[in-house]
């Protein structure tokens, strides 16, 4: 069998995953194998999105390669795919959908190259996923969190507090916040321009939605910027570690800090991403127009309505109930 590389995997790695003894594997014909097109598919992905490539590579190598790697891709039919899926015994619908995405990508590429005449995955549908509602912090919880941070996060720890205040009052995605430069800030116009994001420790010059947006800043966010200017104005990036004087590269480390605060304040634990949800629901509770709130969050209107439907309907009902005439 020819030796070939698959990302950082060698043929020996593939054989080990498939439990194949290389000494007894016969030579195959020259038709491309599933492993060949898996590699080509990964190579076709944008090098800017390292997170997606790593995710797809993991899905292919851990789940599909052990079953399909050494089969000529033209010989893989729907029955083989269904059998492989049954052997994987995937429990969660979202996991199933995530695993199917790169698998479909491999076969789509082979179909485009006219290596296969049909897609063996075309009748395998995604499973329905029950999305969890956002779980924002209520105003009392937000105030308690910030008050605790103000008391205990002082000196070089103050930057952690400023980061979370910014998250609470702008709704930025963590990667967007950590990629902000001072050139993105216009204090006189009270604007922050979001045009890049931090991914895999590196700044990627595109946003999640591939659209630039301006965030309109309230007084609380402006106060954060004024303090940041004193602390980090000598650097390009807004948010840096005061311990190292270098930009932060890992939002997950900051998430760990919030978990500590929630434990100390006895507030029900939830992911740090809910700071963003908190800002969205704050906008809705303030009766800000839904289209304006969606823009501020970097959503299209339909996505915003879908994610925050419960809060939109709640506020509409509160307004409508005021119209009741009790006389």
Report on this model:
The protein has 327 residues and is mainly alpha-helical. It has 2 domains: 102 residues, DNA polymerase, domain 1 (Orthogonal Bundle), CATH 1.10.150; 178 residues, Orthogonal Bundle (hpI Integrase, Chain A). The chain contains 14 helices and 7 strands. The chain has a 3-stranded antiparallel sheet. Helix 7 packs across helix 11. It is globular. The N terminus is likely disordered.
Shape: globular
Per DSSP, the total helix count is 14
Query: What is the first-to-last residue Cα distance?
Result: 88 Å
Query: Which CATH architecture of the largest domain is right?
Result: Orthogonal Bundle
Could you give a short description of this structure?
This protein has 327 residues and is mainly α. The protein is 52% helix and 6% strand.
Question: What labels describe this entry?
Answer:
2 domains; 52% helix; 14 helices; single chain; 327 residues; hpI Integrase, Chain A; globular; two-stranded antiparallel ribbon; 3-stranded antiparallel sheet; DNA polymerase, domain 1; mainly alpha; 7 strands
Give the SSE map.
Layout: H1 11-17, H2 34-44, H3 50-68, H4 78-88, H5 93-112, H6 139-152, H7 158-170, H8 174-179, E1 185-186, E2 191-194, E3 197-199, E4 202-204, E5 213-216, H9 219-232, E6 240-241, E7 246-247, H10 251-265, H11 274-285, H12 290-297, H13 301-307, H14 309-321
Helix pairs in contact: 1-3, 2-3, 2-5, 3-5, 6-7, 7-9, 7-11, 11-12, 12-13
